[in-house]
Amino acid sequence: MKWKKLRLRTTTEALDYLGAIAMDLELEGFEIEDNVPLTEDEKKRMFIDILPELPPDEGIAYVSFYVDPDVDEKELEARIRECAEDYSGLCDFGAMKLEVTLEDDNNWINNWKEFFKPFRIDDSIVIKPTWEEYVPGSLPRAGEAGSAYETGGASETGTAHPDEIVIDIDPGTAFGTGAHETTKLCILALKKYMKSGDRVLDLGCGSGILSIAAMKLGAESVLGIDIDEIAVDTSVENAGVNAISAERCEKAVIPQKGKTVFIKGNVLTEDDLCKDLKCFEVDVVVANILADVIIPLSAGAGNFMKDGGLFISSGIINTKEEAVKEAVLTNGFEIVEVLHMNDWVSIVAKK
Q1: How does pLDDT run across 155-180, given as a tens digit for each residue?
Q2: Would you say residue 147 lies in a domain?
Q3: How far apart are CA 302 and CA 309, in angstroms?
Q4: What's the predicted TM-score (pTM) here?
Q5: 31 is in which domain, residue-wise?
């Protein structure tokens, strides 16, 4: 579907008033571009380790409205300016210069797909997008001509596995193509430490890639949890594409053998969910999130595990490695191995 994008140059002080104008004109939403420094609360809510570096804030902002292609932009511009006059004594609206372009939402949704191609995690595991063809064994292995993947010392390479594991993924708008170092580290740790028949809890399941990897590596069952509705639905769909029996449930249930269950929830804030999980006693908890989430999560993860169970965590930038290790040790775990790949870290710990 095509949309007309109206991009208006204004000032940061006018943004709240333009929001009110958008509501008055029944414009359902708009996009803001500015260089206003992030507050500490905003930084925490962004859930990222490396914060964006913004240019100096010069008080300039851009507001973009998306409307149907048949909307008369000149008429809409005139109405916006007319409404702005009502607030002109309260703030400076700046240049109010308008740029008009025609956008295709397919471009927003699908352009990234051309860069997502099949790739190796290691000699035996391949990740491929659902829309790409792949002939098993066709990607070079470590040491072969054309090999482009690296494990950063996280696993042994060079020995071809006779039965290649291929994981099909369409992340949609959920996190997790498998290409990021943090996901690779988790998959390699699952392969190395998870035993056939283990029960796995995937906290922050995203696209479901770690849940699927665990099942394909021999897990008895997996329960995946994410705070995002879309991630939960995407995980169920991706599991199905990989011929794994999966369903969405409204509360935590112990999956039957050979099945995966995905639910929406937050183990850091939902006491009832944590109470349900305490009776699960899984063999492995895997969490590919962020250091600032792993640290408080380590205080409760052991409650969901058997004695001797493994806590595999990743999403940890190397500058926060020591803080996560300290939290893991403080909360009753023994560190088994610390894996590195470029600037990222994964910690394998035992209860």
Answers
A1: 333 344 457 899 998 876 556 666 78
A2: no
A3: 8
A4: 0.71
A5: 2-110
Strand ranges inside the chain, DSSP E: 2-11, 30-34, 60-67, 97-104, 119-120, 125-129, 165-169, 199-203, 221-226, 245-248, 259-264, 282-288, 305-317, 334-341, 344-350
- DSSP β-bridge partners for residue 310: 284, 350
Spatial CB neighbours of 274, under 8 Å, sequence gap ≥ 6: 267, 300, 303
Q: What are phi and psi of 232, to 5 degrees?
A: -65, -50
List of long-range contacts for 224-228, beta carbons under 8 Å, 24+ apart:
224/260, 224/261, 224/262, 224/263, 225/201, 225/252, 225/262, 225/263, 225/264, 225/265, 225/267, 225/273, 226/174, 226/262, 226/264, 226/265, 227/264, 227/265, 227/266, 228/174, 228/264
Task: Specify the number of domains making up the chain.
Answer: 2
Given 3-state DSSP classes, what are the helix, strand and coil percentages for the chain, each rounded to the nearest 5?
30, 30, 40
Rounded Cα distance, 226 and 118, in Å: 25
Report DSSP state, residue 206.
T
Report the C-alpha gap between 291 and 314 in whole angstroms.
8
DSSP β-bridge partners for residue 3? 103
CATH number of the domain within which 73 lies? 3.30.70.260
In tens, the pLDDT along 59-85 reads 999 999 888 888 898 999 999 999 899
- CA 292 to CA 236: how far, in whole Å? 27
| Domain-located, residue 166 | no
